[in-house]
Structures are given as structure tokens and as C-alpha cells.
Amino acid sequence: MTDALIVAPLIPMLALYGLAAAALVIVGYSLWRGLSGWALRGLGALALLAAIANPSIQREDREPLSDIVIVVVDDSASQRIGTRPAQSATALARVQAEIAALPNTELRLVRVGDGEGTTRSDGGTQLMTALSAALAEEPRARIAGAILITDGQAHDLPLAPKLPAPLHVLLTGEASDWDRRLIITNAPAFAILGEPVTLTLRIEDQGAVPADIAGFAMISIAIDGDEPQSYRVAVGEDLELPVTIPHGGMNVLQFQVAVTPGELTERNNAAVVQINGVRDRLRVLLVSGEPHAGERVWRNLLKSDPSVDLVHFTILRPPEKQDGIPVSELSLIAFPTRELFVEKIDEFDLIIFDRYRLRGILPNAYLHNVRDYVKRGGTVLVAAGPEFGSADSLWRSSLGEIMPVDATSRVYEQGFKPALTELGKRHPVTEGLEKLAPAGGWGRWFRQIGLVQKSGQAVMSGIDGQPLLVLDRVEQGRIAVLASDHMWLWGRGFEGGGPQLELLRRLAHWMMKEPELEEEALVASAIGQKLTVTRRTIGDAPGPVTITGPDGTQSELILPEIAPGRYSAQYDAPEMGLYKLAQGAFSAVMALGPSAPKEFEETIASGDKLAPIVSPMRGGILRLEQGNPDIRTVAEGRVAAGRGWIGITPRGAYLTQDIRIAALLPGWVWLLLAAGLALAAWLVEGRKTRKPAATG
User: Fold this and answer.
1) Residue 231 in 3-state DSSP?
2) Pair 651, 70: CB distance under 8 Å
3) pLDDT by residue (tens digit) across 525-578?
4) Cα-flanking dihedrals φ and ψ of residue 445, to 5°?
């Protein structure tokens, strides 16, 4: 209970001030005249003014409120290194016990993880955001202090709130900690196939690095999970690394710095760079053995793509043709066989033989070059016509050695509808093409070359289930045989047509080794921290995928079949970082967020970043390795931290439950007092001015 004197004037304060001034003038005049009752006059005026001021006694019934101490515990990934979890738990238990021992004091506990309080996937430790949110939920008049249990690596320092009480930092970690990390300072998102790009790497040491650690480190580099190659590089210097992208699509480059005994963590020793390989110009050589209706199909398809550099030759006049027309009168270009098939053959990404027959234009030695070109990694597509079963068939050349089929010398001239084989329904080249069929199904073709499959994969069939489209791998290259020259009927829309362009596009991309059309692959994609794992296969159902997290823990993911040849499932990743996937002979890597998140850019515990926020409120930064501090109460504005202790400021907040107001004196008492003083002044002054009577 507290009492206070308040005034509630009966007239405006300005009028009250005027009356006071007038009373002062009258009392002063009385004093100047030497009137003996001037003091009583002044007291009477004062009593009258007090009556007008209406003084009252205000009595409050107050309930004292407890002080609040906010404790923010950093539970981010960097706080799970080494002894920091144990340090944090011990410090929190000590703080809770100390606060519980203080009278009229409560504790508010807030925990903050990676990126909490931000929409970014790699927001780091949002300590100030968490502290601001906790302050907003409590009356500021009750905040006696705030304590941060952290390694000092906060990533939202500009959002630090203005505190009404001391802020302290209990710092985890050890003064002897040191760490080595890998930094990718420059990495392009795209690269042209066959042209080197430069990546800039840097290996840095932080903290109390031991003197016996040499200034060099071993770094391994792997592309798409292949066998890594190791190099010895200098620490603390930029390393410019030229890289040539091996294939189109996404190329995943994984870098790993060898772990040195004693370093704080290996989470920032790895990095992943994803570079999308694009082809500057796709060079295609199209050799048409003779003009026919389907020739335009290939030409239109390849010329419609601006990224394709097409070289097209149609053999109109074979050497054995003798019709008496002078060569000078023929608008023909001599076939540059040596230049194309010897000197520049490796410059082509794809060679298409469209109804080509052996006429002596290409000597067998040149076809040897084509065969070797495929084995070295080249690709050849054979679009067969009636000549494929004849004596001058391309199959009878040295190129036939790598073909997945044998010719039967039979040509079927009858209508049939192409169909996908069971394997074709699972193969990426033809998967789902049946969904693109018109209402009555695909249109008919009217010619098929008889083939006997001896290797490879038959993805389409024709008459009596005979192979129509066969794909095969030959050492490092690929070859495909299409046993018909009537695909152009689909392009013309005959009987509804069919997916001509889509089939040829997929076929060309498969032959050029585009990753999205590989029939055996393990791929992963991510949205946020949700990882989608997909396994493509044309074989039996694959087993589970083993996922290795950034901290080395392993888990297995079962992949159910979602489509023919496709098995997929989602995995909720517990944290950001580099994930390794393995299933049988296949492997993949995926970085959720950066491979070394913001939490691991600086792993050495330090209070330097938080010092400008702590010092204005005279708080302290204490290392927990030196012991857990005591908590004391200090007056506002005093130093709030010292050796082995931190202080909080009691706020003395209260809740008013009841207010009672009573007049200091009744009004009639004030008036009676004023009248009595005025009468007393008159009597005193009258006695002094009365003269004594005369005597005889």
C-alpha cells in the first residue's frame, strides 16, 4: 500500500496561478506598509488557495510483479560440434538453478535452431530475431536481463533489439579450437561441352591452428560420383581449377578436403558444384543414300533446332552411273569423303545413315573409321530401307560388326502398327509414347526390314513382333537401328499419325548421352529439405537406396514403383548439407542448401560479433570452459558482469489493484482556517494602531 498527495483544482490552473500572484502582491504590500498582520494575511491567503487547489490523498493497493530473465539457447548445427552440447546443457541447468534461487524472478527459455525466423533455407543462426520475439511477448518494465548461450556466430546482428536491461553471452567452445574449411569462391552455373571453365577454390584455416600443421592439404575431386582424383594444394591461397564438363545436363562436381586430426568439424571440408552442361553447336552428319519421302523428316527435324549444325549429303549420282551428262552441267557437290570420315569425323556428335547402301563412295577403310569412332564414344543411327537386306547393305560392311542386329534379307511390304515392347515401355526413349497416340491408335507403316536381334535393347516392334527399333552400347559409344523408312507417315498425319518428333528427339538425345534419358540412373532433386530420389531401370526392381547424411549417419529409403521402370520416394532431410546416395553400382550426391551451410562458414566460437550489442548495457561475455558464472542483482546503470559472475537488474514492477482518493481536509475547514487567519490579522493590526487614553 502506498500514499501520494495529488491536487485537483476547482478552477483552471491558470486562474489559480493568477490568484496566487494577486495574494502575493497583497501580502507584499502589507509588508511594505509595515502592517504587523502581514504574515497572518499571507497564511490566510495560502489557506484559501489550498482550498481552491483541492488537495487529496491517493492510496494505492499494489501487487508486486516478478522480474523476468530471458534465456536464448542456440541449438543450431554449429552448436552440436564437440563439447558444445554438453556445455550448453550444463550452463542452462546452472542458469535455471540460479534464477530459481533469486526472489521474485522468473525465467523465459527460448531455443533457436538453423534458419528459424527466416524464410531462407540457409538463414544461419537467428539469435537476435529470437530475442526480439521473446521481448515482444513480455512487458519491458519487467525485463531484468537477457542471457545468450551460444558460440557467438549469429547471422542477424542488424536486427538486435534495444534492451532495457543487461545482455550477457555465455560462450561455448574451447579457446584451443581450430578448423579447416573449403570455400568455392567462383563457380559458373553453365558450361559449354568440350570447353574448359575455371573454378576458384580456397582452403582456409581458422582458430588456434597447431604449429605442426603444414601449409598444404589434400583435396579430392569427383565428377558425378566417379572415382575421385587427389591433389596437394596450398592452404590460404586461391586455386584456379580448369574443368571440362563431360556431358550435357547437370554435372555434379564434388570436392573433399582430407580431414586433419584435431580439426573442429569436417562438415565444411566438402563442397558440391552443379554445372549445367550445354552444347554450343550440335554437329550432325546426315548421309542419305538416295532421295525418298522420309528424307525430309530427318532434315526438317534437324534444321528446326537452331542449336544443330547439320551437314547433309544426298547421293544422287553414284560413281557407276554413266548417263553421258557432263559433270560440269550437274549442280552437284563432290562428296568430301576423306575430310568427313577421316580428318573431321570426331567433330560430329551424331552420324545418321539414312537408307545408305554400299556403292563404292565410302571405301571400307572409311567405314572402319566410323566403327572406331563409335567405340571411342561416337554415335551412329542407321535408318534402314529396302537396301538393308540386299548385297550392298551397310550391315555387310565393317560397321556391321558393331550393329546389334543381323539382316535377314527379307523386306515386308504390308501395313502394320508399330508397338512398344515390354522393355520399350520402361526405356526412357519410348516410355509413355503410347499416351501420345490419337484416339484410334498410332497410324500404320507399310514397310519393315527383317532383322534378327543379337544384342542391345529392342524398344519397338512391328510385324509379328519383330524388332523395329533396337538400341545398343558399343564400348564408349552408342548405335541404333530403325528397321523402317516409313516414319514420315506419322509426320504427315496418316491415319492419325504418331509421336514422330518426340520419338526422334528422344532417340537423338539418348544417343548424345543426355542424362535424363539414361535407362539406368539414380537421380535426386530437392525442394527445401525434401529430397526426391528416383531410380530408373529397365531391369528388375532395385533394392533400397542408402542415404548418408552430412553428419555421417546412414538410413535406407525404399523406392516403390511409380511408373514402368521408375521407382521413386521422398526423404525428409533432417538438416542442410551434403547427402550421398548409393544403390548397387549407382551413386549420386545432392546438396541441400549449400554443401557447407552458413552455420559452418565460421565454426570457431567467438564473442567478437556480439560485443557491440553487449557493451552498451554493461553486460559481459564469459567463456563456459572457465566455469559457469553466478548470477547477482545489480542496480540499474552499474557494471553487470565480472570475473565468474553476471548481473541482472531488478525492475520493481507492480500491478495496481485498487486506488482510493480522499480529500486532505474538508472544504469548510479550509474556509474556516482562512477566515480565522484573516480575523487574527485584523485584531493584531487593530491593537497596534489604537492610541493610549489621555491622563489629567
Assistant:
1) strand
2) no
3) 888 778 999 999 988 888 899 999 877 889 999 999 988 889 999 999 887 777
4) -110, 165
